[in-house]
Queue: 4 jobs
Job 1
Amino acid sequence: MAPNVALAANQLLPVVYDELRKLAARKMSEERPDQTLQATALVHEAFIRLVNAENAQEWNSRGHFFTAAAEAMRRILVENARHKRRLKHGGDRVRDDVELPDIQAPEPREDLIALDAALDRLKLEDPAAAQLVQLRYFARLTLTEAAEAMNISPRTADRTWAYAKAWLHRELS
């Protein structure tokens, strides 16, 4: 890491770490029960990717930074899901769950890889809608927080969110 990038990273991390950690913890609570990636590791990996000297970028706002963080977290989770599907990593094995009536983990609502592919298609059709989905789903921002991050009105965000949900529902059905 270049000295000026390392200095900037050292100054930025304490400012955003707690917020990124909360976002990652909320996101990880919805992941599959067999997910081995922890929220802390997700934040650290995302942060490393964000301040990588080879791909260093400047953020022009808080919203821009959290959009980049959501994209980094999305890519990390998708890479992890693809990694686990590979045969040499046990992708052909079926999990045999023990029946524990008192402890039930929530079923995952979407297939992460299918969602990733659908988001890529949505980005081609409507980049703002794809960005809003990333902020809502991967960064776990509220609609108001996402609207603020994107610098759009809450009403526009609400319409875009309704469109994006319907579009993704159709694509994933």
Job 2
Amino acid sequence: MEVTSNIYHGDSKEVLKQLPANSVDLIVTSPPYADQRKNTYGGIHPDQYVKWFLPISEQLLRVLKPSGTFILNIKEKVFI
């Protein structure tokens, strides 16, 4: 069995569109913590977070194999 690893770096809204459906075994992601990372990501108001993340999650589901694993690292509040 051959095992290959690829790390994709970039805006997930664009990079995921380039990947074929059902082609990824493992997705590990830690999206921005809403408005807690304003200086880094521009900030997302907590009330808009789900609306912002849904299009990304649709692409994650599209590329993940049925036997794949998805790990989402997220907290409800971060103090800097």
Job 3
Amino acid sequence: MTEKWYAIYTKPRWEKKVSETLSLMKLESYCPLNKVHRQWSDRKKVVMEPLFTSYVFVRVTEKQHAEIKKVNGVLSLVTWLGKPAVIKDHEIETIKQFLSAHNDVKLEKAQVIISDSVQITSGALTGKEGIVVSVKNRSAVVALPTLGYIMFAELEKTSLKKTAVA
């Protein structure tokens, strides 16, 4: 059996605790953390918040699913068509690279719309290919279709090269 990435649905605000518990169980887990600037009345602070609320990713075999469901804070595995949804390795890598290059990343639930295929020609994601969902002013949109989300970050339009006609 090969290990694959799966998304776990957690109790609200339990993402970090679940990820830590999975790591203690010697399971590879990933809780994407977003560096966010928060303003209070008396101070500003940079805090690390989970990018996907109530989601943690884990790399396991199918036999380990029952073990994961027993972890305190885990509600269920995210399913697609009645089976646990498999997240592609390159999508996990894209999330990691995106978060290492950008702060204050925003998420928006996506209705996947197919448009131009592009290759990123500069920046942290150089060489990566993706589907352009939209480009507004300097905001580039990177689609992660398996997760059903899109991430926004400030990129120059000139850093995108069209690779195919849609």
Job 4
Amino acid sequence: MDLIQKTAEALAQADAILIGASNGLSIAEGYHIFANNEMFQRQFGDLQKKYGIRNVIEGCFFQYYQGNDRQEFLQRLVKYWVKDYQPSQVMKDLLEIVSRKDYFVLTSNGDTHLELSGFDDDKVFEIEGTFEQLCNDQPIVDKNRQVQEFLTRYHGKKLVILELGIGMRNRLIKLPLMQLTAQEPQATYITLNLAQELYIPREIEHRSIGLAGDIAVTLHDLKEALKNRQN
């Protein structure tokens, strides 16, 4: 059985799916907060020339010397990355993969693309806040209680932990997910990332699957494999 089929089987048999998502998922959609690419230059080129900012993450936290420029940057970010967003095939595939199960999402992505693609607002926790909250100087909505309720509900059950595009050294989401896998004897840890960013500790490798490559391609293949199981 190849890894896609093995992953599809684990997802099909799961009682619930806990998703962890970071920048790699956004990159698979074509949005890269760390890149000085054509999109960034097209959307923020004038502010780049004025201040030397090189990417979205720098632009969010740069100390602008003209007060209205910070707000201008954030308003454009919300317009281009949130208001103008149309659900990508990546998000459509992901939603189809998980929609038949109870799920919860922990993400450091602030673009709210999950909710805009049809994921339940109450089941997505942007743990570092959203672009709109940053733009409007609003506090992060704390959903720790919902997370704990979800984990309590599926304690000891077949929980798939699906990790999407989280760097191997990430301690904010990846480390807690690996620790949770170790604590839950029926949990399966599935991580999707570029080959150089895949990391599975020895303690949980017997209950883990690493899928290397383009997340967009892998999610599409998983969606098709699950669809074939149902036919």
